[in-house]
Specification:
5-stranded mixed β-sheet, 10 helices, alpha+beta
Length: 210
Amino acid sequence: MPTSRSYGDACTIARALDVVGERWALLVVRELLLGPQRFSDVRRALPGASTNLVTDRLRELEGHGVVARRKLPPPAGSTVYELTEWGRELEPVVLALGSWGSRIPLPRAATLGATSVLLFLRGSARPRGPACFRVELDARVWTVRTEPGRLTVEPGEPAEPDAVLRTDPVTFNALLERPADLDVAIGDKRIVVEGDHKAVRRLLRERISG
């Protein structure tokens, strides 16, 4: 059930945690950082959370004005959740928390979702030229666009991608760490690449650490 618990503390940190401090709340926010998502997409991205729990967190965040719900126009017609303008102000907070947590050892049997990998790509990419990619991770499709010095990610199909990538988040993350392994990953079918292979190599290579 949704919670209305409060720390009862006047400190602004405590008041912020009254809104986003419940377990899974910030991970729901993380899943919406790249754009609107259907409930099924958010639920699938958080395998450790029950359907009821995800429902409660979304309802709480909506009630606090962090998340909004809207229905897409035909022919889609589905309902999506998205961050409000106030909710989007959490992005630097969530990303800073992720940077701070990078020194914490991985838990056993840790999962890695598409949003996490794509946020890492967006934050570390330093592309030198324009390109458009259709990136499919675990049956979810994303549009990745590059221009000099900037990379953007949004859910959904691109109109005319220069290249198509189909893989899983773990493999994609590994290739971002070791771009030279792309040919091996293609050979053992961990990733499928169609279109401009050179553009894909640039996407993997042109990063802060690359």
